[in-house]
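Sample A.
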Amino acid sequence: MRGKVGLVVGLAAGYVLGTRAGRERYEQIKEQAEKVWNLPPVQKQVDKVKDLGKSAAMALPNALWNGTVKVVKAASERGTAGERLDAAIRVGKDSADDVADAAATTADEVKDAIRDRDRS
């Protein structure tokens, strides 16, 4: 399915770029493309992609930020330099696990979205 869409888009782009019919034909093609873009099934898929992008894009940066904050707090606690270093390393390892979990969750969400798209 994706290959067919890519072929159609490629042919359309080649025709628009290579045509000598001028601005009028370009405007006709543009108008048809806008009609297709505004169809409810197309917009439904666009909304799905936007939602996926919002959820998936935020999971990983949040995990990274939270991990960084935890490591900085652990490193700035009271105690000897060695104790602070040990605490920072311990928290860093836990945070790395959180980041790995967030990355796995994001990857799973993307795979599910692709699977749903292919079924549609």
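Sample B.
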Amino acid sequence: MNFHQHPITYVSDVTLKIEDLNRAVAFYTEVVGLKVHHQTDKTAALTADGSSVLVTLEQPDHVVPKEKNRTGLYHFALLVPKRSDLTEVVQHFVNKEVSFLAEDHLVSEALYIWDPDGNGIEIYADRDPSQWDWKNGEVAMTSDPIKTTDLLPKGEPKPWKGLPAGTIMGHIHLHVARIEAAERFYTKGLGFELVNRHNEQTIFVSDGKYHHHVALNTWQGIGAHASSPESVGLQSFSVVFPDEETRDKRLVQLEDVGASVKEENGEYVTEDPSGNQIILRHE
């Protein structure tokens, strides 16, 4: 099952604030393996397939380095189609001497790196959903380290050509101020389902029984404040609903949970209780 298309609600793209556009573009093309879709003096849109924009980089005026102990992005996660794609990324990282972490989450295998501005990036491959362990409505997940040698491709390495065209935005993981408020917003407001309560500081929500489309944590401190508009970090991310009717229903639900929704440039925009901005779209 495809968990990132109709009739599922999913995360489709992110916009990041960065300090140096040229430095960031070089990193995202040469290290991450995305391609430039289009670029201006202050922005760059990045793609894997040449068509769909996954990441947009913006260099604000008067930008300041990433502020500490704030809500916002923990990481965004690029989902590659197959495990063999992930092994090719590992070989690429090894060849370029890129520092990374590798973890087994039971539902997936994942690599973690950070861009030059400190924005977290996950690149991962899902295990077959038939292997996911569901009990009482919750999916089992963990974070066990993986040896790099276990993820290296077998046989002769292939020349690196960047991330495969089938790469999509798999999920986003956010720092929030309070778990209870975040859970209410993302479930009662946006309509996601709680699928894993890891502990008092971390929850995972999804649609269509995916392991998670959004993860939420209070690791930056309960009651943490949002970053200033000039700070490096998350500008916004998009949530895509299966149709206009579902989107409009969620707009009402968001207002019912006390969230404000406004229309900007023909799109509906809201913020979660921690100040994370979300663009509300539909198929």
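B remarks: The chain has a mean pLDDT of 97. The chain has five helices and 19 strands.
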